[in-house]
Amino acid sequence: MSSFLSSRIIRFLVGGGVAAALNLVLIFLLVDKAGFDSTALRNLANIISMEISLVASFFIYRIWVWPGGSWRLKPLLLKQLPLYHLSAGLAILLRTLIIFPILDWLGINYLINTLVGVLASAAINYVVSDSLVFKKGDETTSGQEDFYPPEGLGPVVERAPIANGAEQRANDYGLLSLVIPAYNEEGCIVSTVNAIADMMAAERINYEVLVVNDNSRDSTEDLLKALSDDNSRIRYINNYYPNGFGFAVRCGLENFNGDAVAIVMADSSDSPEDIVRYYYKLQEGYDCVLGSRFIKGGRVVDYPSHKLLINRLANIFIQIVFGLGFNDVTNAFKIYRREVIEGISPLVSHHFNLTVEIPLKAIVRGYSYTTIPITWRNRQTGVSKLKIKEMGSRYLFIVLYIWLEKYLSRGDYHRRNRKQRAKVNG
After folding, report:
1. Is 424 a domain residue?
2. Beta carbons within 10 angstroms of residue 82's beta carbon
3. Residue 385: domain span
């Protein structure tokens, strides 16, 4: 039991459960025992019980979940308690006014809608409490960065430059593969591939670009053939699975030749400079480098506001469910060593939910990772293939699927266990 309660997220949930139980007991005592039996008095009882349970949860979290901070009276009363009330109120408002209506619009069953709403509210409360209300403890996640608000909603912070001395480290890590799924991308595929190829050549990185033509109906394949004829490091294959983003990426991950692979979008939304930074960061010994657009130094440009809101809610939900410090799971643009791709196979996602399956499986199965800030720009040509309404239930499916693996597989797929079995068998 003590090891189970050692997790901050578990302590947070247990503390919230205790506060909720206290709320129910207080309402019962005030209404049934103290005679608060009129409409006005029952409302008053509800307000009193909620406030007492909220303050109780604050001190439970302050003592048990986020210990070690200052107990000076002034910051406690004038900063931490008001911020905590604001956090709880924000969670309730977002759940009532945004999360429930969106999930209902997506056609999610009302029971699942309620469960997701409760978890999302807890996630918002947890993240805000961890980031703003309480002093952080010493617990860290590999590659964890501090939480920052989405910079697409505020002043843009300049992205960090490419690592110093990159020109002296050229060609020291084997072959890097760039897998690019492409469906009807005649307006941007040439500029995307050429920009990547030019950057790799300028940095003297040994690379290949593998474009997976997802049965395009425009001139995408003809353009890819011309690109491959002009540059031997560029090749393309036709997706042999049914149409779909996930199938196309899976096709590419089954056919790349490199020692490491980055998944890159065909619409020029991902920065070639960030590929270089991924490449050199991976050489520090990590199994994966997971970029984030929502940490200090990252940014988004022309991100549609409704998609940005849904993105942040989805990522906060994933953070709380898995207890992650990483806050941009849903973005496909990440880099992995070959052994990671082999270790998380077989992949099951058919669509954009593959962007969640790959990094979550890598994290859950014990591969090391770090996070760096990246830049994302909205496409200038073509049409986005992501249909939010169609993807809601698929994202939820893959999150729950990997959550079940994390907590019910008893580590059967964990990297450490695979190494131990290899040692025993050897």
Report:
1. no
2. 11
3. 151-408
